[in-house]
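Still learning. Any example?
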Amino acid sequence: MEAIQTALGLEPAEPDFLVTLAYLHIDARRWSEALAAAQLAVERSPYHVGAINAMATCLINLRRVSEAAQALENALAHD
């Protein structure tokens, strides 16, 4: 976790770093923190597959299934 925080300190807008942070939170089942990182990554890179997947995973685990489905449908529409 420390390494990714350092990387984000150097490049705070880098979507790959944000996605990595999201997955670290997912692994720890910190859904809200993971969702925040994934959403920021999607804002920076709207069609980043890892970010969209992380966001959908969090939304499902937060019982926000319709939002997860919408995020995935939007991603497929732009594929």
